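dude i think i finally got it to work??
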Amino acid sequence: MKRIFLALVCVGWLVHGSALAGSEDRRSDESLASEERLLGAADEEARHQALLPFTREIVLAGIVARSLDGAMAATGVPSVVRLEVEQALGTVLDLERDVQAGDRFQLRYQQSFTMQGAEMGVGRLVWAELQTRKGTIGVQRFHAARHDETLWLTSGQAAAPAAMRLPIDTIAVSSRFGMRADPFDQPKNLAARGPVMTHGTGRAMNVTVNVATKRGVLAGLSPTGTTRRAVGRTSPVWYMHEGIDLVAPIGTPVYAAGDGVVTGAGPNGGYGNWVRIEHPGNFATVYGHLRSFASEVEVGHVVARGELIGFVGSTGRSTGAHLHFELISNGKPVDPFAHANFKPVRLVGADMERFRRQLSRSRLQRDLKATAPDAAASAPVPW
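look at this
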């Protein structure tokens, strides 16, 4: 009986000890969990890295059947990347007119994925080439020193429109910025008798003058300037032309050169029907001889670049249908054709050198991909 009692006591101590040990283990686990929540687990970085998204560069190529957009969609190019390609190439090409069946494209874009391989966010174009019958046009993403990372044409020109645009779509210049003959003071039919000067500038009386271009001559302007007989001699009569004249049929749409606010709209002496727009940066543009105005155009109206503001006419002091267009910078008229706002940004110096090196790497990747055994697998439509 005594031995039985001792055995029961020993079993009790063993059970109690086991319970104590389990309790200690639970407290230890809870402490460890609290410590990990506070300080992080030893393998937390590895687990975190395993859950992080990753980015791949994807190469696709194809052949145009009906349209560039349709060909890219058929190869699996995401819609955002297609839009980037079309906007970039559209700065130098008319994608409806210049891209034809049989033209080839190749592009590379970045795409982020989750750990499970699902796409995250939107793709981003890195490089693209379009091979047309007129030549190959390419774009490359690049971060220039004084610009945000953006797309550039392989020539080094920004693949984006200039800050300002000319106000009509088809440009035919009859008279440029500078000294010119008064068109109302020219002899009748003089254009038919004189030589045609094609460059829009010439020399007379040691002054650079703005002579009639081919379009101006066809419109009836003197090709060499006007003349007037005075005191038995012939002398040219010149005055300053503070804008450019763009020949176009009556009714041709006229668009705002840039974002701004209308500060003038209505009849204005020799300008005829006239619009003035103030733009950021102390710029203004003037549009003269309009036949009529767009319905929304009035003083105070906010316009966007490319918004319709009126229609070509021949009102005011005008010899025929055309648009008189002026650019005013800091209160002074300047030549729109010579101003940086009407020219696309270009890479120069060290930026251009770095860009050429990056472009060379892209072309090398293109060539390596084209010669790789599995090249066809990466292109749903053969290159």
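The first strand starts at residue 54 and ends at 63.
im so relieved honestly
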